[in-house]
Amino acid sequence: MVEPVSTPSVILVLHDVAPHTWADYQPFVEAVDALGNVPMTWLVVPDFHKQNALDAHPGFRRLLGSRLARGDELALHGYFHCDDSPAPQSPRDWFMRRIYTHEGEFYGLSQNAALARLHAGIELFQRYHWPLRGFVAPAWLMSQGTRQALCQLPLAYTSDPQHLYRLPDFTPVDAPGLVWSSRSAWRRGLSKVLSEQREQRWRHAPVIRLGVHPVDLRHGSSRNYWLQTLKRLLAEGRVPMTKANWLTTQARLNRGKP
């Protein structure tokens, strides 16, 4: 029996999708659309920083609905995308929540608190008839309570920077990702060097994820990097897919193995 072979893929992921970040994303999305059929995974925040509730923005919701009709995927990306838990108590937690990021919303949540926010996000997707298969925690930070909560919900996957995890059992699937830190010129310079090295190291990987953030698109160097990298990977023969569709394809291939 011949073992099935997967065509190398690329997954374009738009982080922190909310009404107020659309101005950053719109020119980039239009440039990607001009390349042809390149499906994207949009990580949608229901109420970004408690100031951008999707319920109050029908025009943006229609836009997201139109992206689904094009073949894109919408995934749940936290609920508020801000860390409103009590102040950190340990040096490690202080570093993770005040130095590494201020947006680790699910880093300190109990199981019940995580369940409440996840249920609220799922209900929002259901309200607007958006299919939902994936959840990505802001900054990829999840407490043990969050992990326990995800095991109880009808979601197919979550992720961290280098893996996708099939739910409910958190089965890891290698899916290396490129991501930039674009808050300053030196960070952008370092990000470019590191990303180029990683792309070379992963040139034979079955999939490469491109994790784009709104701040990346406010600077010419990072904006151009993402568009040129996507073009190059497509020219090399990588097939563009959403996270959900890539996982479905991998599961089908694995079922066909001897």
From TrEMBL:
Name assigned to this protein: DUF2334 domain-containing protein
Lineage of producing organism: Bacteria, Pseudomonadati, Pseudomonadota, Gammaproteobacteria, Pseudomonadales
Record's signal peptide: none
The organism of origin for this protein: Pseudomonas fluorescens
Biological process terms in GO annotation: carbohydrate metabolic process
Superkingdom assignment: Bacteria
